[in-house]
Amino acid sequence: MLRTSLQWRKQIGAESLIDDYEPHEVLAKYFPGGLVGHDKEGCPVWIIPFGHMDIKGMFYSVKKSEFIKYVVKLMEISEQDMKDQTEELGKKIETHSIIFDMDNFTMKQVAWKPAVDMMTHLVKVFEDNYPERLKKAYVINAPAFFPMAYALIKPFLSEETAKKIHVYVKETWKSAVFEDIDPSELPSQWGGTKPDPEDRPLVL
Length: 204
Fold this sequence. Notes:
The protein is of the alpha/beta class.
């Protein structure tokens, strides 16, 4: 598994993505979300407003390989942040948490096969090349049909990863999230006190 992962990293150029890779304008401008702060233990926290992602628009604008490369770059940014936090805090930081906001998520996104294929492929990339990096995933504002969408992805998740995914319907997630993440680390869009980014809003 390690040899295969090292070969994959070489092929995709993972080591140089942060400094040298300039993503397609559509991805840089319209891929929603990003690294917003850290949890109470110092681990990176990402927010991905998945329901506001124009998947069809992106797929019609960029190649599949470009989309994958950009997401891998985000993973490498998280890896670098873990290293920085480890040095700054004097303790090992090797996991991150992700908040997937499903507000505005529609059945069309579930039913469109290219999107499902991409999600399952990315899950496999994460499982094969970034094992045990997920600390916790909060799926918030989940619509009633979310279990059907999740059922398409779950078979590709390891048992350990699946245990770390927690799903919350509207208005039930804040207490759980705030138990692990201080509101000062979250943008106001998600009930926090951190100023929203001025250059690029998280929700487009």
